[in-house]
Amino acid sequence: MTQYRTHTCGELRLENEGQTVKLAGWIHRKRNLGNLCFIDLRDHYGITQCVLDSSSDLFEKIKDIRVESVIGVTGKVLKRESINPNMPTGDIEIAVEAIEIHSTAEVLPFQVAMEDDAPEEIRLKYRFLDLRKERIHKNILLRSAVIAEMRKLMMEQGFNEYQTPILTASSPEGARDFLVPSRLNPGKFYALPQSPQQFKQLIMVSGFDKYFQIAPCFRDEDPRADRSPGEFYQLDMEMSFATQEDVMKVIEHTMGGVFNKFANGRPVDQAPFIHIPFREAMVKYGSDKPDLRNPLIIQEATSLFGNSGFGVYDGLVKEGSQVRAIVLKGQAEKPRSFFDKLDGFAKENGMGGIAYIAFAQAGAKGIAKLLSAEKLEEVKATLGMAEGDAVLFMIGKGVKFDKFTGRVRLRVGEELDLVEKNCFRFCWVVDFPFYEENEETGAVEFSHNPFSMPQGGMDALLNKNPLDIYAYQFDLVCNGVELASGAVRNHQPEIMYKAFEIAGYDHSVVDNQFGGMINAFKYGAPPHAGCAPGVDRTIMLLGDEEIIRDVIMFPLNGKAQDLLMQAPNTVTQTQLDELHIQIVKDKEK
Predict the structure, then answer these.
(1) Where is 401: in which H helix or E strand?
(2) What is the DSSP string of 19-75?
(3) Which of 66-80, 463-477, 508-522, 554-568 bottoms out in mean pLDDT, i.e. has the lowest?
(4) pTM, rounded to two decimals
(5) Pair type for strands 322-328 and 298-300
(6) Which DSSP state fits 537?
(7) How does 222-236 read in b/e, with b if 16+ C-beta sit within 10 Å?
(8) How far apart are CA 134 and CA 208, in angstroms?
(9) DSSP character for 554?
(10) What distance lies between CA 137 and its chain's CA centroid?
């Protein structure tokens, strides 16, 4: 193979018995039993057990070498006496005849051969060691394989890969830009692209039909468990003369194919994925990212109150509040403490509380004592309940209330162990509102993507209440995680000007902020649409990881710092002078 090895550490099997081989790798584990020394030698491909006899001159050579040192061994392949069925190479071992020490390791800051409780800051500072761990190493290999499969599936559908600029202009796309000063243009700045949005639309205007790339995107935003600060990657795609349904079919073929290939036996919803309108998602699931593994459904229950006998809810309903209900099948015998904890959870979240009725064997409990027998029967009939069931009632209004009901649904589903495990449940969330009302100012604002085509086009913008207009926008959701966001683009300048006008922007703002794209539209733009599944989140789901940093080779920490390379960092005064930048320190308060 090379001068360092004839085989890898994951390659040898019983059919190699008797062969003299050379291996190279890291000392994964070392066990000195007095008369024998066992070394588990690890490389990128696997682990092979090597054995030394204490009578060998090599015993002294290896005795004080620490784990994670890099060595080469030469020896004969033998059948192991104690077979290890948990290792692909567990049938054989190497009787070491020669050792070459390539590099010695210092004392490790944390264990590599096993998972330990090393703090994340230490793991990221020594990321090159963390990447040697089996779990993280497998995640990065999975990432490589998934990206290769994405490329293959997109090309199968006639898409070509093009690269868009990394240095571009600042664009208000909802997050802060990373700015890069220009040496040749003093006082001016490039921005790293938050996405290739405008460029990929310009590619369509340029006459290329189907575009994709594995695109790096840069956003100066706060991290979350499923969002890495600084940079992330997405499977960016766009296609001309396409409808919303055309884009969905492409993404279903690609993402469905990726999940089918890498699910490792876990059930995967098959295309076509179900469609859930945005407003339905907010009512039934309390989220525009519904986790369909949870069987609980939120029901509209406002009609049950107003003159029910439960004065608190009756009064609030008359003032315009809404009531939502979650039926818990067969849970009527839950102790009162279960319901009291949920009531406390509501109050912790700034909501009034949670009421309940439990149709228990000994009689209905909760607010049942305040309701008539007829009203209790109406509750059962309206919500599809039976004896032995319980129901939670929540009251409020607005987006905050919708989201709260969703948190209750998720919490109850987890507590009752109702959520499916080891599966992937997909849906499309469609018909997003084009505009929304700012709760503080009452102003009409874009709710999602200002470049989307409003359903109904110019006629809708001219004749409908802005808050009643839907957009051709759609999100792909898997297990409660937003995996992709897409839209049919607004390719007609007059519709774009009008859409921005309704949101409070005049023509000059559009020309200034999006001049390159809207100018291109004036020279003949095809109808086009696209989508962008997140690569990092896809790997996170397939790898069953809870933190996105564990599927990224060299991630930033929660403070957007690269602890390994010590970035961000100071630069020299000469560099600042070349860029015409002066650093002004904060005044002491």
Answers:
(1) helix 398-415
(2) -EEEEEEEEEEEEE-SSEEEEEEEETTEEEEEEEETTSTHHHHHHTPPTT-EEEEEE
(3) 508-522
(4) 0.92
(5) antiparallel
(6) H
(7) ebeebebbbbbbbbb
(8) 43
(9) S
(10) 19
pLDDT tens digits, residue range 170-228? 876 567 899 999 999 999 999 999 999 999 999 999 999 999 999 999 999 887 777 88
Residue 457 φ then ψ, to 5°: 60, -145
What is the pLDDT of the chain when averaged over all its residues?
94
Instruction: Report d(CA 141, CA 56) in Å as an integer.
Output: 38
4-25 burial: b if 16+ Cβ within 10 Å, else e: ebbbbbbbbeeebeeeebbbbb
Place of tokens 């070509």: 160
| Structure tokens that stand for 532 in this block | 């962008």
Looking up tokens 């009578």 gives: 55
- What does the alpha-carbon distance between residue 295 and residue 337 come to, in Å, rounded to a whole number? 23
Residue 283 contacts residue 274 (beta carbons within 8 Å): no
Spatial CB neighbours of 268, under 8 Å, sequence gap ≥ 6: 256, 259, 260, 423, 424, 426
User: What are the E-state strand segments in 128-184?
Assistant: 160-161, 179-181
Contact present, 139 and 539 (Cβ < 8 Å)? yes
Q: 271 with 253: CB under 8 angstroms?
A: yes
C-alpha span between 518 and 523 (Å, rounded): 9
Q: Determine the length of the chain.
A: 589
pLDDT tens-digit map of 217-270: 999 988 777 788 889 999 999 999 999 999 999 999 999 999 999 999 999 999
The answer on pLDDT for 588 being more than 70 is no
At residue 294, what are phi and psi to the nearest 5 degrees?
-90, 120
- Which residues on neighbouring strands pair with residue 211, listed in sequence order? 160, 238
| Residues forming a β-bridge with 445 | 436
- For the chain, how far is it from start to end, CA to CA, in angstroms? 66
Classify strands 46-53 and 70-79 as parallel, antiparallel or unpaired.
unpaired
pLDDT tens-digit map of 86-145? 999 999 999 999 999 999 999 999 999 998 889 999 999 999 999 999 999 999 999 999
Q: What single DSSP character describes residue 588? A: P
Strands (E), 390-542: 390-396, 426-430, 435-437, 444-446, 473-478, 481-488, 528-533
Written as six digits, the tokens of 453 are 């085509």
E strands within 512-575?
Answer: 528-533
Angstrom CA distances, 425 to 246, 273, 294, stand at: 21, 9, 10
Tokens found for residue 401 = 């209330």
Rounded Cα gap, residues 170 and 514, in angstroms: 10
Q: According to the 3-state scheme, what is the secondary structure of 482-515?
A: EEEEEEEECCCHHHHHHHHHHCCCCHHHHHHHCH
Q: What is the torsional sign of CA 396, 401, 402, 404?
A: negative
- The DSSP result for 274-341, as a single string, is EEEEHHHHHHHTSSSS--TTS---EEE-GGG-SSSS-HHHHHHHHTT-EEEEEEETT-TTS-HHHHHH
